[in-house]
Specification:
Elements: H1 5-24, H2 43-62, H3 79-99, H4 102-105, E1 108-111, E2 115-118, H5 119-143, H6 157-171
Antiparallel strand pairs: 1-2
Helix pairs in contact: 1-3, 1-5, 2-3, 2-5
């Protein structure tokens, strides 16, 4: 059970990142740059975008003056190395979030020395960004036929409610 803000944020962010990296590792080399449309991102673009923003926002948290930040490194070209980098950054974020105090969460920063944000804002930005990128990747994952061999069947809530009610009526 999650009992602290730190645990909730770290669990939400890192569970998506770990799942994303796990599924990325299942792609064959020919799948990394596949897209269903030129306007849609590839798995590589999603992985790189996620990793680079994790590095960037961590730098904002650790050093408030963006002029002191090194440029975000170029991503590893080899796919396993990119997944390794994403997993390493996930571990850094897990440790960073886990060790933040309430006062540190409230500490003021500014994105690129402009837009004011507190540390909590940066953590929430990463949670939102990573969930969004993981969701985009999920669509590619389905389109590549890696999540089942039948069309996606969304589990809508009302059939579950009806099944629950039928079960109650069967026992009455």
């Amino acid at each position: 059970m999650l009992t602290t803000e730190n645990q909730a944020y770290a669990s939400l962010l890192c569970s998506h990142l770990r799942g994303f990296a796990y599924r990325l590792r299942q792609l064959g080399p020919e799948m990394w740059d596949w897209t269903p449309s030129p306007a849609a991102p590839t798995a590589r673009i999603l992985a790189v975008h996620t990793w680079q923003w994790l590095v960037c926002d961590r730098q904002h948290i650790e050093e408030p003056d963006a002029l002191q930040h090194p440029l975000v490194p170029e991503p590893p070209a080899e796919t396993a190395a990119l997944c390794d980098a994403l997993e390493l950054e996930t571990s850094r974020w897990d440790k960073l979030i886990s060790e933040l105090t309430p006062e540190q969460f409230a500490g003021m920063r500014s994105q690129f020395n402009g837009y004011p944000m507190n540390v909590r804002d940066f953590v929430c930005h990463m949670i939102q960004n990573c969930i969004y990128k993981h969701g985009q990747f999920s669509t590619l994952y389905f389109a590549l036929g890696l999540d089942g061999d039948a069309p996606y069947d969304a589990p809508f809530p009302n059939p579950i409610y009806l099944e629950l009610r039928e079960g109650i009526n069967d026992t009455a």
